[in-house]
Specification:
ODC_Mu_crystall, 360 residues, ornithine cyclodeaminase, domain 1, Rossmann fold, NAD(P)-bd_dom_sf, 8-stranded parallel beta sheet, alpha/beta, ODC_N, Ornithine cyclodeaminase
Length: 360
Amino acid sequence: MNSASGDANGAVCFLSVAGVRRLVGAIGLPKVMHGLVDAIEVDFRRWEEFNKVPRVTQATGEGFIELMPVSDQHSYGFKYVHCHPGNALRRDQTVTGFGALARIDSGHTYLLAEMTLLTALRTAATSVMAAKYLAPEGARTMAIIGSGAQCEFQALAFHYVLGITTVRLYDVDPLATAKAVQNLSSTGLHVVACATAQDAVAGAEIITTCTASVGNGRVLTDNMVGAGVHINAIGGDCEGKTELQADILRRSDVFVEYPPQTRIEGEIQQLDPEHPVTELWKVVAGHAAGRVSSQQTTVFDSVGFAIEDFSALRYVHDLAVDAGLSEWIDILANPDDPKNLFGLLLCMPECDRPGNDGVN
């Protein structure tokens, strides 16, 4: 698990948006998805090795900004991420982020990466990992309620890793569904655009909810969900924002990432604080049961947790370095004499010195 590395001269591995695109293009999205699922699964099995805290959230009035830190014995990682739903009205991204990894032994940063694309990839990979343990065996049809930024990532991750062959899509915005249909048209998936959420979930063995609904939404009501279905609830991710009617949760087995965070931000914020849930890492590690019956209704109440970002950062760092596709940037001050930091400031090119206008 010790992938911590860095350049002796202070250079840091840097993965820009363009860098992540090049990496996925060179390796291939199916292989990247498989690798991410494996990396997250490995880290969930060693869950108890991590120092964990709920993410730190700052409400802004227009949205929220979060810092998500976590560390193991080798590396400290964090992600900065925000969500500003009003940005969509300005045709701007509602969610963006970046992340970093640093060595525990020296404190030096060795990776700085964009985490808008990476978060979308790791969210889909985490959903698939959970479904490996919770979804009906042999499931082939999936409904996705919400055709926004996460939709295609979910569809393709389930297609590549779990063999989903049909996706049924619904969004309150028909143009969003049309966008997703177009993006998925040449992937080998059978894509069905549906007129209602009720229509979308008909015949689906797995239901993913990934909407931008604000407030206590009712994306799925109790009468829409039959026995034996697995629900991948990933759209509710902050206090006061939910997608499932509480009655669904009460009759389902609910699995979560980190209870102190999920009870505030997840679907289960609607329930009594003592309502029983199972931590997903315990299922992955073999300490608790996942799906045990064909009639069991399961819910993965996912709000996203820092270990998943840590896994994604660790995975793409190693992938980029091994493939020779990493960029390097000089952001760590590294003077010849560690006690003479000011001397490093003075060691600038002559033309950049204060007072030098370049005129002879």
